[in-house]
Design a protein that fits this description.
Blueprint: H1 10-34, E1 37-40, H2 64-77, E2 81-84, H3 91-104, H4 107-138, H5 140-152, H6 162-169, H7 173-197, H8 201-209, H9 214-236, H10 238-251, H11 258-267, H12 271-299, H13 312-331, H14 338-367
Antiparallel strand pairs: 1-2
Length: 368
């Protein structure tokens, strides 16, 4: 287990994973206890000092000193105290907050809303980056004109541009999706061009020897090679995309979403709820990462398997159907019955994937 780049068995990975989670929880618990404090159990005393003054209590700002003095007297005369965790909540407090979030704050609906906006941002970013990246990366004329500006995009202070997006698109979903898409494009477009440069010359020499045209070379060499690696790059941008969508949702909290919910909880100083929402975002990001890994394995199996897998064709057909349904839902979101059509198409795609996956797993078992 201490060899450089050594391999772990499946059982070792499971046990060490559980131990790692236990260590993280223990450190979390100790940190919460270290930053805790005691407050008196008396009537009229709030956990936050001064007790009757909050960030929104502007009318009481002039009374701050007197309120603090009164709190100090209550604190000095108190005979009973309780421990609170105003900075880092206990893991048990965070776990208990999920029931409240589900019941009172529509946690599931807000999570689905943020995820939908996130996927839309990815859709527009990929839709724009791939053709633009291929044009700039493949043709010297366009590379000479636009490669430097594309590289310079990386240094844009994106959060400072949110005011510009508000002017252009307003404060509703159009702005949020546009801002997220632009935030992904800034990083993804230079990567597309870089991946084109990474295509190995041996493949290009082979298709040139076979007499392939430029279009055939792009279709059979450049596009598969770039896209198979681009999925890994998109995985890395998952954290970036969630950062920008949370920032965008801060602007208009009435629109809902996890970002808006975090903003409200911050204003109310409900720290356990904030931690719970952050964990939800981490979970969604992890699931997105697993989805991209799965897509990479099934759309470009040559990177992971030495032979063709039976059933992979059906899986790919189901994936393409889901992507087509998603594109349909994005382009025609305002049409009547679009939800029903998308649901039927998505179910059909999932049936194809499930049927093909059964055959793929059987093929993998035969290879062992």
């Amino acid at each position: 287990m201490f060899e450089l780049r050594g391999k772990l068995t499946r059982s070792q990975s499971i046990v060490l994973g559980i131990v790692g989670i236990a260590i993280i929880l223990a450190v979390w618990w100790l940190l919460a206890e270290a930053l805790s404090r005691k407050i008196p159990v008396v009537e009229g005393f709030n956990e936050e000092l001064p007790s009757t003054l909050t960030a929104d209590s502007l009318q009481n700002s002039a009374l701050r000193d007197s309120i603090l003095r009164a709190d100090s007297i209550k604190f000095a005369n108190a005979t009973e105290f309780k421990k609170v965790y105003p900075v880092v909540p206990l893991p048990t407090e965070v776990a208990a907050s999920y029931r409240r979030l589900l019941k009172n704050d529509n946690l599931l609906g807000n999570a689905l809303r943020s995820t939908w906006l996130n996927f839309q941002g990815y859709f527009w970013a990929v839709l724009l980056c791939i053709p633009i990246g291929f044009v700039v990366g493949l043709f010297p004329l366009f590379r000479g004109m636009f490669s430097k500006p594309v590289d310079a995009l990386r240094y844009l202070p994106l959060t400072a541009l949110i005011g510009v997006f508000i002017i252009w698109f307003g404060i509703y979903d159009e702005m949020k999706v546009a801002f997220l898409a632009f935030g992904i494009i800034v990083f993804l477009l230079p990567i597309v061009i870089s991946r084109i440069d990474d295509v190995e010359d041996v493949y290009l020499s082979t298709v040139f020897t076979l007499g392939a045209s430029k279009w055939q070379t792009i279709k059979t060499v450049y596009f598969p090679a770039v896209m198979s690696r681009l999925l890994d790059d998109i995985r890395v941008l998952t954290a970036v995309s969630w950062t920008y969508i949370i920032v965008a949702e801060y602007i208009n909290k009435d629109g809902g979403g996890l970002g808006a919910l975090i903003y409200i909880k911050r204003r109310l100083q409900q720290v356990p709820d904030m931690f719970a929402l952050i964990l939800v975002i981490i979970l969604i990001g992890f699931l997105q990462d697993r989805i991209f890994v799965y897509l990479s394995k099934r759309l470009y199996p040559h990177r992971f398997y030495k032979t063709t897998l039976e059933g992979n064709r059906e899986v790919r057909l189901g994936i393409y159907l889901l992507l087509a349904i998603f594109a349909f839902a994005v382009f025609f979101a305002k049409l009547p019955m679009v939800g029903t059509i998308a649901l039927i198409g998505a179910l059909a795609g999932l049936v194809f994937i499930l049927f093909g996956e059964i055959k793929v797993q059987a093929a993998l078992q035969k290879q062992k």
